[in-house]
Amino acid sequence: MKLKKVYAFILSALLLSGCAAAEAPAQETAAESTSESAAAEEILSLESASAEETEPPVISEAFSDENFSAEKRGTVILRYTEDEAASDKGALRIFNRNNSWDGVQYNAEKFRGNELEAEGSFRSANPSVRISVQYSVNGNTSYNTIVSVDTKEDSYSKGSGKYEIPKNAENIIVYVESDRLEEIYIDDLSVKVCGEYTYYPEAVATEYVDTSDYPSLKEEYKDYFRIGTATTSNLLDKEPYIKIIKAQYNSMTLGNSFKPDSILDHNKTVRDVEKYMYSPAVKFDAVKKELDYARDNGLTVRGHTLLWHNQTPEWLFYKNYNIGGELADRETMLSRMENYIKNVMEWTEENYPGLVRTWDVVNEAADDDGGMRKSLWYQTVGEDYIEQAFKFARKYAPEDTKLFYNDYNSYQTRKQNDIITFLRPVVEAGNIDGMGMQSHINVDISISQYMAALQKYYDELGLEINVTELDVCRGKGDDWQEEQGAYYKEFMSEILKLRKNGIPITSVTLWGISDTDSWISSDYPLIFNDDLSRKPAFDGMIEAVKNQE
Ligand code: XIL
């Protein structure tokens, strides 16, 4: 990952000369911003009416006085500071940040369909600050990093990056954020168009191709394992998607709807804290459409996910659900954990009997720097929280439901060893059935190392294997489509070989359908293009199963 970042940085530096160099004066629209929340909708109406539509848009902020056009994002307070600067005089101080995405934001609607370059100087105790872009395609919002700048507390660091905004994007917003919540000083921020500018007043609707004559992945692989995809309920409003999912896949994972932040009911819980103290309230509106679709079209579902450090609201972990107070004690958290697992599993089985055959019980518990991640589950329950979660999951899961652990980079030696260490007691207790390999990979990842890791999970723990979130980020060359296609083909050929050699691989799930709806769309990691035309990656998967040695 590190290497990739450095590479992207060098590349963007080399390409810099290709970008429009015009420096426009800062738009002097908003003085010190005092408006309440800078909701996305609000800033979309702030477009300058006088701007020439054919002129390339520019965001350019020197922060040399109190006039700046930055809008607040989240709960922040923005202050112009005079004594601080990367260049000239003055900078913007962003503080009172409560979420990683709290910072400043700019309407970037006019960049639709164009490549942009964003640049800025930052000072922060955060180890890094990002310039990111948010937009929606097909009703799915994605959040993408344009550039991540490593920052220091006592001096400014500058960085720039490029990003191509799709023609079908809506509600485009460029913003500054950072994972940790320390304040950020920002200076000399600019966003410009690279190359020729084309103005798209609104999102260009995608014209989908006819997919009915494609070979079918689920048919071709039916003697080996299930082929799955990740869904969102928005996609199920679109006829071409409904059709392709039905034709190609026999398993699906709800990409977001089954996660704790979508299931846990904050309002209901805090309205009666006494009642819900040990069993937070849950709601299931978000999952119904996708589960109905799966049931009605003969797909099985992987339940994703019960315990995770992400997409899990923080209030869950506090005494009386009161963020800012004390963390809840171990016994309280064990009860909340048990009841959450119980309520989710029981509701699912009652309403959709037999549909969810597999649960990712714990997701991403390994730390990238070794050992277990010090998540709020870890902090409140303690080191055995994984064992406890699987114990409860086994207790409430319907018979024959498979219980999985799921993680990314789980093919890497150190992470694999950590995972094996903390799963061993769960295996010994008989409470886990499988290892989920997320497999967010790229064309430079060694397939033989990956396969050796799969073999090792089986040899050491005897676990069944699912590839749960496959996507393969493209390379940088012109022939990236072919390169990626060859990678998919070899990857699947090797998976099939392991399967033949007796490793119980029971499903391979792709994390999305077309590149547009990927969570990392700018890496073009999936097997269908935006219009659902097939990529060499799709053909590679078909060839792998047809031409087995
Ligand atoms: C991603 C979803 O696809 C996005 O829509 C969401 O914004 C963030 O999460 N590992 C996981 C998945 O286990 O749940 C994540 O899914 C991708 C990484």
Number of beta-strand segments: 20
Please work out how many helical segments DSSP would assign. Answer: 15
Shape: globular
Poorly predicted parts:
1-18, 20-50
Trace the largest sheet across and list its strands. 12-13-14-15-16-17-19-20
Amino-to-carboxy terminus distance: 33 Å
* Largest sheet composition: 8 strands, parallel, barrel
Mean pLDDT: 91
The helix-and-strand class reads: alpha/beta
Bound molecules: (3S,4R)-3-hydroxy-2-oxopiperidin-4-yl beta-D-xylopyranoside
Query: How helix-rich are the residues, as a percent range?
Result: 25-40%
Alpha carbon gyration radius? 24 Å
**Beta-strand proportion:** 15-25%
Task: Provide a quick synopsis of the model.
With 549 residues, the chain is of the alpha/beta class. The chain has 15 helices and 20 strands.
Distinctive features:
549 residues; alpha/beta; eight-stranded parallel barrel; six-stranded antiparallel sheet; 20 strands; 24% strand; globular; disordered N terminus; binds (3S,4R)-3-hydroxy-2-oxopiperidin-4-yl beta-D-xylopyranoside
Topology record:
Blueprint: H1 2-15, H2 40-44, E1 59-61, E2 71-73, E3 77-81, E4 91-95, E5 103-107, E6 115-124, E7 128-137, E8 140-150, E9 157-164, E10 170-177, E11 184-193, H3 217-220, E12 226-231, H4 239-248, E13 251-254, H5 260-263, H6 266-271, H7 273-276, H8 285-297, E14 300-307, H9 330-351, E15 356-363, H10 376-381, H11 385-396, E16 402-407, H12 413-428, E17 434-437, E18 440-442, H13 447-461, E19 464-473, H14 480-500, E20 505-510, H15 536-546
Parallel strand pairs: 12-13, 12-20, 13-14, 14-15, 15-16, 16-17, 17-19, 18-19, 19-20
Antiparallel strand pairs: 1-11, 2-5, 3-4, 4-11, 5-10, 6-9, 6-11, 7-8, 7-10
Helix pairs in contact: 9-11, 11-12, 12-13, 13-14, 14-15
The chain binds (3S,4R)-3-hydroxy-2-oxopiperidin-4-yl beta-D-xylopyranoside.
Residues 255-256, 363, 438, 469, 519 line the site of (3S,4R)-3-hydroxy-2-oxopiperidin-4-yl beta-D-xylopyranoside.
